[in-house]
Request: fold
Amino acid sequence: MVDYLTARGHRCYALTPRWGCEAAVAEECTVFDCRLDIAAALAYVCNREAQKAYVVAHCQGSVALSMGLLDGTIPSNEILGITANSVFMNEVFGYWNALKGRTTLLISLYERLAGKFFPVHSSRSDSAFQRILDVLLRFCPVGRRDICTSTTCHRTSFGFGLLWNHENLDDDTHNNIHRFFAGTHTKLLKHVVRMGTYGMCLDNELRPLLTSENLERLRRVPILFISGTDNEVFKPESTLRDYELLRRRFGEENYRRFLPEGYGHLDPIVGKSSAEDVYWRVFEHLQSCSKKYGVCKISQEVDRL
Reply:
């Protein structure tokens, strides 16, 4: 997507939230904490650019963005528009995630047996427990029975849910999953589970952030919601609830929703045909926001925050 947008004249900034930073920081963070990273990144971009930032957010990055907007940490007037993939404020787990997420006891049991980090990539130095877990995960149900022998893929499905339709990935992407998924710490995973079970974003004290007062802060922020029709991490109902809620509250003008047929959770972003099937809708929304609220600066650079 970065290549797609830079080729069309947009400067892109890529943010790695604190859950992807050094272990001592990542181990103690929640999704709610990561809203501060997005706020800092937007402040950085606003200091360098004449135009407001357009944000493409995915999964828990999208949830963290919504949290920051709802509690006022992220000023909505700093944002040109948003693409929110898979989930935003409301969260409706897919079947298997809902089953696993009924309680955090499974995560607590894992902590007692293996510690506070769940690795996605296996290695020869793994403990006996992790090797046994790899064998068991070969038989873990994930809904559609995509034939896959990748241990890394099985681990991502166990930790997060089935992230894609395999037919939408090329071999290079599938064979290098370990390069963009390191793993997750259990504190963050517990927060995700509790929000998914409750059905909406929660702060660190598990208080709902989706209140009438907080929602007012999203007024006039254009949002494109995207949900793959086969998403098994968060049901497409998640973005439907947000879409309908915002349209009822603020009118229809600023909200769009797109359901790419045959796509799952992450493949709208990393799929081999995403440029033809999905990216054009993001670009179209970006252009629409730019024409309405500002003029795009032309650049061929990518900055990593």
User: Anything to note?
Assistant: The longest strand covers residues 79-85. Residues 162 and 232 are 6 Å apart (CA to CA). The radius of gyration is 19 Å.
